[in-house]
Structures are given as C-alpha cells and as structure tokens.
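Fold Annotation — chain and its backbone
Encoding — discrete vocabulary of local shapes
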Amino acid sequence: GEVAKKNEFPHQALLGWIERNPQRIEFSCGGSLISRRYVLTAAHCFKVRDADFVRLGEHDLNKNSGNHKDFNITSITRHPDYRFSSSYHDIALIKLNENVRFSKVIRNHSTVLRKVVLKFLDRHICGMQFSGRSFRSGLIDEQLCIGSDTSARDTCQGDSGGPIQTLLGGCTYHIIAVTSLGPGSCGLAPALYTRVSSYVDWIESIVWEYE
C-alpha cells in the first residue's frame, strides 16, 4: 500500500507487547478507537498472551514525533463465541485505563502507517483458500472476503485487528470489518475479515454501558 498522510487516520491504534529477552516492544496487531475508552480489534491477537498497552497517534515507528500516547489496558473482552481453535467471531474490545482526549492526531472512529483500496470478493474465492480444522462450518455470514484482483495489495503480518473502513461525510470513518486472517505471503491472495455490523449489539452492550 501507499504511505498514509499524517493524521489521516487518527482512530488507528497499535497494540504493544513488551518483550524482555531481549528487551524490546513488539507491535503485532492494530485496532480502531471507537469511543473515548474502547478500542476494537481481533480476538486472535491475544492467542499467546494479552497485549501490554495500546498506542494512539503513531504515524511512523521509525521517528519519535512525540505525538503518540500510550494507554494501559484495564480489560480485554473477546466475543463470547470466539475460540482460539477456530477462526469464527474473531473480534474483541479493549478497555483503556483512562479516557482519551481527542485531537487532530487522536480521534475515534494511527513502521509508517499505510493504506490500500480493496474490494469485496465472492466468498467462494476465500472458501477455496481457507479450510481445515478452524473452518469446520466453512465461511459464515459474519466473515467477509476482501482483497484486490488486479494487484498484489492486501493485508500483511501485523495488520490483524486493523479496520476495513469507508469515509462518510468527508471526515467520519465507518468501520466495516476487522482484519482477521490473511495468506502466508503478503498481498498474494485475498484475506478474511470479521463483519462489524454482525456484532453491533454486542459492541454497544459493552461500550455504551460504560459511556
């Protein structure tokens, strides 16, 4: 994909894991800030262990702009039907330890942040690609097959939990799906995404109860 403009996606979040041997920080998943206190992401991101913190306002990990802010995590809520042994209902909510103060750098729905234009594909295309023990029921309605049929552009390692989104009204992004599962090689095949509209009631029961 192409490099995103600075502050173009102020709702974009990074999930950070603190590794101690050797000491370093791994940003292995993304997410979307959907309220002052909650980030939407993929449940499978926490298969090994829970993330240690959430970073907002980051554009380029190679440069220290000083614009980002790290938040501790109060809780992680996976969808009740999600199982680590399968690829269904791959969606989760992260509750931050404090309210986010919105700005042009951080706003609900940010290596260098990249973007790519993708399209909805027929599910049978992904059905041929994804099978096995984690897809005992095939692809379900809550999953979307999205990719590019004209170029090698698609999700890659570290994109899990990030959004498929569309711009509404010139300034508001509508999150359509959460990145769930992609091919072994970046951009060589379409990927699977969790359809957010199927989980709105569950999301609102958690997020708006607090808000």
